[in-house]
Task: structure prediction
Amino acid sequence: MSIWHSAAFALILAVAAVAGCGEARPTATAVPPTATPRPTAEVSSPEMVLVETGSFEMGDEYGVLDARPAHVVSITRSFYVGKYAVTFDEYDRFCDETVGQSRKDDNGWGRGRMPVIHVTWYDAVAYCNWLSEKEGFTPCYSGKGKVTNCDFAANGYRLPTEAEWEYAARGGHDSRGYRYAGSDDPGEVAWFGDNSGDRAHPVGQKQPNELGLYDMSGNLFEWCWDWYAEDYYSLSPASDPQGPLVAPKGPAWELNRVRRGGNWREDSDAIRVVCRSADYASHVGEGGFRLARTE
Result:
């Protein structure tokens, strides 16, 4: 082999060695909201569904205490929400192009159209800003850590508020009042403890809800914007609630953000559209997220 060919082959090997991104380590390191992109090919835009303005009764009087009292909430600005949760296919591109981000462990279940799991709240925020910049939108998030701020007037990608999430899961103004996102039979619309085989499943395999949104009951927990407070419903404003305005006091593991939807391990009662969950923002758990964007 000539010297020129040997040098070229060595260069190819060197490029291949640095092109990938290693698997995630089981740490809970908070990632700054604004990611640093590298030059790359175009990323396909996520499939989004328009959720028009309207009012609905949020929570109920029969479940756990943090879903009480039932109260009427108005959504006064239309917004888009992801047809599916963000997948490994989508998140891996972000990881490969972003300094400081590592691909997430898929539990051996495969990647592609599987919903990404092991995502912290900070990871989700970083992804939203990255995708906004990729598509020429104004990023919603600024600040860092506990003082992360969201500009809801910006046109970039963001996490839904808890109220937006429940409104969309219920079917918006097309809602038929189902207990689960699209049916009163959880087996029709959800992967949960009775049918999941103790694992997550690729997005879009069950029936959608009234708006054409998939997997909003079961399959995986989905991060929302809001700080979590057990008694928030008794204090919530009537229009466009965004959760407590000030972070709860306490150590990092008590600074909880809302999660919704339940996951593949839950029983049928825990994946109802009214059910709330929470975890600390830097927790690397078995959850993911779904995108939103103000119209």
